[in-house]
Every structure is written in structure tokens, then in C-alpha cells.
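hi! just following up on the protien thing from before. the input was this:
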Amino acid sequence: MKLHWLVALMLLGLAPSTLSARWITDKVIFECKEAGNVEFSHYQHLESLGNNCPSCHNEIFQIVTSKNPDFTMKDMEKGKSCGACHDGKKAFTVSDTCDACHKM
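and the predicted 3d structure came back as:
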């Protein structure tokens, strides 16, 4: 009986990290006329970052998207916005993998 309670408590402890981010919109579309729109997946990034929203919010991106400035590929190559992680070390680089993000 004690084992059942222990397992239940462990599962409850894991639940917030697994479920807490599911209220957000998964897909965010960044419009880009020149290279094709970018479809960003929150869930994919949360999975790779261990459900760690503060990895990006609010230091790199504001939660309220209208508060984010427009950003360019030059900005990203300087380590801003997506380029903060997509630098070729933490994640694939933004410089030479256009089709990884941009959908034509």
C-alpha cells in the first residue's frame, strides 16, 4: 500500500512539468515574404529544453508576441532571437540551414 502512495506522489510531482505548458499555443507562424514563413513549435522546443519556459521567456522573447521587435537573419547571426540557441553549438545554425525553419 505504501508503494502505491509513493508512486502516486512521484507522478504528481512530475505532472506540473509535463502538463504546465500545455495551455500554450503550440504553433506560432512568423511571416517572412522573402524566404517563406517559419512555423515555430513550442512543444518541440519545450521537449528539447525540458519544459523550461524561462530558457526563452522573457529574456530572449516576450510572452506577449506583439511586444517582440521584428528580427532579421543578421540579428540571429549575432546571437539575438533564434540565434541565441541556433548558433551551431546548442542547436543547428541559422546561417546555412534555411529549409529547417523556412517553408517555401
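The two ends are 57 Å apart (CA to CA).
Helices lie at 2-19, 42-49, 73-77, 98-101.
cheers
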